[in-house]
Amino acid sequence: TRTPVNVTVTGAAGQIGYALLFRIASGHLLGPDVPVKLRLLEITPALKAAEGTAMELDDCAFPLLKGIDISDDPNVAFDGANVGLLVGARPRTAGMERGDLLEANGGIFGPQGKAINDHAADDIRVLVVGNPANTNALIAQSSAPDVPADRFTAMTRLDHNRAISQLSKKTGVPVSEIRRLTIWGNHSATQYPDIFHAEVAGKNAAETVNDEKWLAEEFIPTVAKRGAAIIAARGASSAASAANAAIDHVFTWTNGTAEGDWTSAGVVSDGSYGVPEGLISSFPVTAKDGRFEIVQGLDVNEFSRARIDASVAELEEEREAVRGLGLI
Ligand code: NAX
């Protein structure tokens, strides 16, 4: 029998946590043959709610779930962790400046990065979901100097999945026949969903659509502002779709991308496509043997270049801001 994989989930009592934990425990994160132990990290006032969720997990009698621990101490929750899903974050509240937001999140992701550095298993893989995800991931990564930098990633898979769905609606081609879509840059309103290299039913997506007005005025803003549209409709932010994307991200990372296809993830830049080294930016990536690799050699046209540059400039500003605050 296999040794269980330790999966640490922060913000476990939140709404994404509630949508995420049951799918991890039922085998969707790592595969149907991989036993898991859950380590739930919450702030002290939310521990009771996390215990309630743990009771429900017990009540599912999931065959793969080999244990649940709950803690408000990152050093305990990340002890021996193989996968870390960093969901809990400090949301922006009314009147909060960006500097305040970054500082508050630095107080969360700095100590969690250090706890990962000091206590996680050697094969630790981290996905940051909590916003601002790219820069929170950068803070955690910078606080974990002994962990290879490429183990820290930020989630743009939800944006990726949203873009596939919108492209499917436009072209009438099923999502299963859409490949090679890319989200570039920051998980924010500046992100750039790129269909110039994408394929719908084996044909180039941009040529098939052949509608630059739709691309610039409908597709890109619809994908980039989808989170706000969900809040307006549902009265709460995306939860099940975010949890689903987190599952997709880790499953792809550990099980690989299909031959000839790629996905999108926020990964540490090696300078590819002019993205400054060290930034955690979304790229087209393949996954193999448990590693993401940035897809090389794509032509970037003028339309794409301007949009990638704008989103990357925002990431650089965020990095400067957290540097200024001494968080990295
Ligand atoms: P909730 O407010 O429902 O849950 C957050 C949970 O985190 C709360 O239970 C809170 O007690 C906990 N928490 C806060 N500080 C913590 C800490 N230091 N350690 C451990 N737990 C802590 O938010 P939810 O809707 O679950 O969203 C979570 C995060 O995901 C937010 O930052 C949100 O902005 C972000 N999202 C990111 C997305 C992405 O694509 N990258 C999409 C969905 C979502 O908006």
Automatic annotation (TrEMBL):
Keyword Transit peptide: no
Source species taxonomy: Bacteria, Bacillati, Actinomycetota, Actinomycetes, Kitasatosporales
Family the entry assigns: Belongs to the LDH/MDH superfamily. MDH type 2 family.
Name of the protein this chain belongs to: Malate dehydrogenase
UniProt record, GO biological process: malate metabolic process; tricarboxylic acid cycle
Pfam families: Ldh_1_C, Ldh_1_N
GO molecular function: L-malate dehydrogenase (NAD+) activity
Catalytic site positions: 187 (proton acceptor)
Domain (Lactate/malate dehydrogenase N-terminal) ranges: 6-145
Organism per entry: Actinacidiphila glaucinigra
Domain (Lactate/malate dehydrogenase C-terminal) ranges: 156-320
PROSITE patterns xrefs: MDH
EC nos: 1.1.1.37
